[in-house]
Fold this protein.
Amino acid sequence: AAMAASLCRAFGSLLLSARLPALPRVPPPVPLPCLPGGALAAARRRLNISAPRCTTDPMWKCRVKYTVRPVGMKKTGGRDHTGRIRVRGIGGGHKRRYRMIDFQRLRYEEGASPEPFTEKVISVRYDPCRSDPPTAGSPCRSADIALVAGGNRKRWIIATENMQPGDIIKNSSHIGRMAVSANEGDAYPLGALPVGTLICNLESHPGKGAQYIRAAGTCGVLLRKVNGTAIVQLPSKRHMQVLETCVATVGRVSNVDHNKRVIGKAGRNRWLGKRPHTGLWHRKGGWAGRKIKPLPPMKSYVNLPRVAAQE
């Protein structure tokens, strides 16, 4: 009894002396607007969507300063910054290193006057992604590339069919009264070239850089000139009309036998960074899924006469 009385006195003093801190008032929940059932469910689903991952890695295309050294590339797997697939059939493959190709042949040096200039071809090579042998990695492009030098700079360009190290190529923006007799690899406006010339690396707008006829072994034909414009036949046999001040390269793109290569096996496509399609695109031989059943064995219902053994 004495112990119980002491405990009661202790608890009573504790309750009278100790004061609990005041709790902060929680605001009442804001009611959702009156929406129909489907819209309300959609709003709740949108609240659960995770935000896209913020990438701060420097992209290889965001470099401002030009360099002839290979630049590391980051694989995307055909996905954009939100993580969703935008281009299907891409994934895996060998590591790649990108070489910046200058598609604008009439790019003058800083402080230089816009006059014709020449460049010397230093090397013509296959464009691998990692190392020198062609079997080391998948290519960044189907055509060969050439390292040219002129003045105080070097740059990579798309090589033509018969371009060799030591060749001198000319770049000019002048359009004269008479058509020029250009050599293979030279870059001229369409207005300066004679009708019937084979061209490649064609611009769609003056000064924008080559956007057409850049694949291996392709070439276009300058058909005619009409009122300051030029009609060009593309490799797809379509006719394209551009301004005669658009620059093109004389000749055919290198690596003509690119379309004759044999892949040989599915694994090589994976080396090139190409993923397989769905199962509907694959030919099935009857083993997978037993979709194609073999024919049952034939039974003979013909009573063949027995040949008695001759004694």
Summary: The radius of gyration is 36 Å.
